[in-house]
Amino acid sequence: MKVRLLFLVRVAAALFLVFAVQRGAFLAINAGHADGAPLASCLASFWHGLRLDAVTVSYILAVPLLVVALSCFWRRFALRVVLTPYWVVVALLAGTVLVADIILYWFWGAKLDANDLMYAVNPKDMLASVRWWAVVGALAALAVVVALILWLLRCATPSEVSRVGSRWWALLFVPLAAVIFLGMRGGVSESTANVSYAYFSQYPFCNHAALNPVFNMVHSIAKTEDLQNEFAFRDEKAVEDAIAPLFASNPAIGDTLLRTERPDILIVVWESGGWDMVMNDSVGPNIMRLANEGVLFSDCYANNFRTDRGLVSLLSGWMGLPTTSLMKMNDRCRRLPGLARTLSREGYATRFVYGGDVDFTNMRGYLHETGFETVLGSEAFGASRKESSWGAPDQFVLTPAAVLKAENGKRKAESEADAFGERGTENGRQPQLNVVLTLSSHEPWTVPMRRLADDRKNAFAYTDSCIGALVDSLRSLPLWDNLLVVIVPDHGVPLSSSQSTSDWRVARIPMVWTGGAVRGHKVINNRMMQSDLAATLLAQMRIEDDGFIMSRNVTAPDYGSRPRWALHCFKNGCNLIDSTGAAVRYECGGKRKTENGERKVESEADAFVEIVLQWVYQRSAKL
After folding, report:
1. Residue 200 and residue 155 in one domain
2. 262 in the same domain as 162
3. What does each C-alpha distance from 555 to 242, 270, 526, 528, 588 come to in angstroms?
């Protein structure tokens, strides 16, 4: 019996050692994301991480406990042979999560969780962000880590155990099973184990280091779509009453920006085009020029931190969710409001163009569910789609022939103008909504142009030049006079690898309206967010926007009298930027409600963040 008990102790010790080594590697490799965290706080993550380490170890020990209990009934039991298949599975799964957590945090500044599994479904697209040497290094590290974990677990396991004096000894494992169960639960408190156990510091990096990656992955799988109860801080009706005045629909126009109520619309979604990156003459001379010619929304913030989420904010007027992506939930996508669906009812033809894989993260499904009639991806660009790891470079996508092509490419247009429907506004011409998503200003920052020494900035300069060339080409066509071009990023971008996507300054993005349908130059300084595009555009077109409950018309006469703020979600957290420019950061893992009761609200701003977050989740759950 002593051998069996020592076996369980050795296995537990081996697993604690694995998690401690991974935590040390995490701290060392990702030190660039520490953001000023003192060494003492970083080291404290080892202590504060033990609680979730113990929970994870308890789950893994459940099977060995059952096996050694059953071994009491055999004269000789080949324990190592029986458990080796289980250890192989544990080593593969745990090793993959531990290595991926370190590597993805280095790239994204965010912990690995279940939402990242949808990217793994498309490994080609997922790896397109990573250099080849990083892939080779990651695979090598994975092989080493898996081998070491398997070796440790096998070494901790005796080759065989003999029958004990009496089979009644097997009952000893009943209280041990109770101990393991309590370990899995996280103790005897009312709350069960959750990620908030690891949160202890004002520095997110330290909390992320303490958070066990294996537990975080398993926990997030169970929580991915539990939207209704995810942030249930307050009475639901009280939250609705608090939010209602903030999103009261007002289609009135204080600033008339357009010459016509039914323009043809081209929305250029600029991959990662954050304000600090592109709004300067070095990187973005063309976006600067267009901003000085048309309408510049100078105080706009991205709702999200990834393309799949940014598109939902832009095209559905829906604020971000920090813990999940609505795009991958087809059952909810069909009930989301859709700019394309609304304009289709007004007689618009709707079309989406992307030079990459439109099946990535269920993009195609979302686009069709929300009203896009035609969705074109890399297959529409022939050999050029192979010229970068993501697909066709922007110079092949951002051309009049590509973005204005006839529906599905089945009818060859007599001219680019005809393809866009230039047949006279009063003579039965069908207006069109075309949306094009760029891709070149994305890791690994490789583009067919070299103007700037810095790879990251050079990639954005390349896309800027392609946008400038597109607009200049459109300007020479007859369709220009009735055309509205909206240029807006899907999300922001860190200026360097040391800046996190959770930094609220990363969220600021430019939005520019240009084209012959725009009355003239104007700067709108109202604080707004991506999701406000839908209501603002529809108000300018005198179209009802009552379905866009999370979108505000920032040109409404009374907009300035309402609280003006923007919500920016990053992975497992959000920033709320208020009208004064102050940002309130909210870490979901450390501040979410537990079964033990609500945490104390520290300020009015803190309370407001919770109200907004709960409302977004309540409404998303009802889709």
Report:
1. yes
2. no
3. 22, 23, 8, 11, 33
Cα four-point dihedral sign 90, 93, 96, 101: negative
361 in the same domain as 464: yes
- Residue-wise pLDDT for 416-437, tens only, equals 444 444 433 444 678 999 999 9
Angle in degrees, CA 289, 292, 296, rounded to 5:
115
Answering whether pTM is above 0.90, one says no
**Distance separating alpha carbons of residues 546 and 376, to the nearest angstrom:** 29
Tokens linked to 35: 């953001």
State the burial class of residue 16 (Cβ atoms within 10 Å of its Cβ: 0-12, 13-18, 19+). middle
**CA distances (Å), origin 12, targets 5, 56, 588:** 11, 10, 30
88 domain residue, yes or no = yes
What CATH number does the domain containing 377 carry?
A: 3.40.720.10
Token pair in block for residue 68: 């050694």
Residue 309 has pLDDT above 80, yes or no: yes
Question: Is the confidence at residue 539, as pLDDT, over 50?
Answer: yes
Q: Which two tokens stand for residue 375?
A: 């969705």
Instruction: Give me the pLDDT at residue 593, please.
Output: 36
Per-residue pLDDT of 35-81, as tens digits, reads 889 999 999 999 999 999 999 999 999 999 999 888 877 778 899 99
My answer on whether 204 and 308 are in the same domain is no
Domain annotation covers residue 233: no
Count the alpha carbons within 13 Å of 37 in the hemisphere toward its beta carbon: 26
Q: How many domains does the chain have?
A: 2
Q: Show the tokens assigned to 268.
A: 């250029």
Q: Does residue 539 share a domain with residue 489?
A: yes
Residue with tokens 């069909």: 334
| Contacts of residue 333, Cβ cutoff 8 Å, sequence gap at least 6 | 326, 327, 362, 365, 366, 369, 370
pLDDT at site 570: 92
Q: Please, which pLDDT band fits residue 190 given cuts at 50, 70 and 90? A: low
Q: Which pLDDT does position 420 carry in this prediction?
A: 46
Query: Which residues lie closer than 8 Å to 149 by C-beta, 6 or more apart?
Result: 18, 90, 91, 94, 95
Q: Parallel, antiparallel, or unpaired: how do β-strands 573-577 and 522-524 relate? A: unpaired
Q: Find the domain containing 303 and state its range.
A: 245-445+455-474+485-573
Q: For residues 429 and 588, what is the distance between their CA atoms, to the nearest angstrom?
A: 49
Q: For residue 599, is it within any domain?
A: no
For residues 371 and 305, state if they share a domain: yes
